[in-house]
Amino acid sequence: MDRNTTVKDRWLAALAYVGFLVFIPMFASNKSPFLARHCRQGFAVFCSEVLGIAFLRIIDATIGVIPVLGALVMILLSLVLFLAFLIISALGFSKSLFGESWRIPYLDDWAERIPIH
Fold it and tell me: If you ran DSSP here, which 8-state letter would residue 19 be given?
């Protein structure tokens, strides 16, 4: 835990992992490197959630029309995506509240390219 991280920065960083509320800390002024890192990762998670929903819509429009198999596939995919994003968001929320930085597997490389100052 970094001792220079303020409580306000920790709460704003935690807010970055709560869906579309990522835009609140992104537009905050005077971001510390800790807050900027969590904003980038939170935005990457949010974009992945939006892409996941779009993916589910496409699968629902194609495979989802098959009477029994389509419904089972949609339920399984929806459950897997929901649980994956819930776990990632909960981990990010708790890590940021404790003042820790962490790397989200596969998303961190993409998140580092997001220009947040």
Answer: G
- Provide the pLDDT for residue 65: 86
Q: C-alpha angle 44/49/55, rounded to 5°?
A: 125
Residue 90: which of 19, 40, 6, 36 has the closest Cα? 19
Indicate the number of domains in the chain: 1
pLDDT at 5: 81
Identify whether 115 is part of a domain: no
pLDDT of residue 1: 57
Provide the b/e sequence for 78-109 (b: ≥16 CB within 10 Å): eeebeeebeebbeebbebbeebeeeebeebee
Residue 100 lies in a domain: yes
Task: Read off φ and ψ for residue 17, nearest 5 degrees.
Answer: -95, 10
Q: Which domain holds residue 57?
A: 7-22+31-109
